[in-house]
Amino acid sequence: MVIFRNVVDGQPFQNWWDNGSNQVAFGRGNKGFIVFNNDDWSLSTTLQTGLPGGTYCDVISGDKINGNCTGIKVYVSSDGKAQFSISNSAEDPFIAIHADSKL
């Protein structure tokens, strides 16, 4: 998460989303996006990330190593939207992607 913070430093908060309960997501400019699920049910939704299209490595579940991802891959479409699915029983019920985690 330190790298995430460094990549998004100084970027404005944008693309806020919440479900009115304990599922929250937001972007930091066009540099990063994070989704939290602290509810008693799974999260499954498509959100505007503000990021350029491409495949990103979730820096919570894995690492980007030699252009590959050891964790969850998130596909951002050309319009900046991505599908997020996070189980409420996941060990780490959140996903974070940023410009430097793009594959």
Automatic annotation (TrEMBL):
Any GO BP: carbohydrate metabolic process
Family annotation (InterPro entries): A-amylase/branching_C, A-amylase_C, Glyco_hydro_b
Catalytic activity: Endohydrolysis of (1->4)-alpha-D-glucosidic linkages in polysaccharides containing three or more (1->4)-alpha-linked D-glucose units
Residues covered by the Alpha-amylase C-terminal domain: 14-102
SMART domains: Aamy_C (SM00632)
GO molecular function, one term: metal ion binding
Keywords of this entry: Calcium, Carbohydrate metabolism, Chloride, Disulfide bond, Glycosidase, Hydrolase, Metal-binding
UniProt enzyme class: hydrolase
Pfam family, one: Alpha-amylase_C
EC number(s) on file: 3.2.1.1
Parts forming coiled coils: none
Cofactor(s) required for function per UniProt: Ca(2+); chloride
Family listed: Belongs to the glycosyl hydrolase 13 family.
Record's protein name: alpha-amylase
Protein species of origin: Marmota monax (Woodchuck)
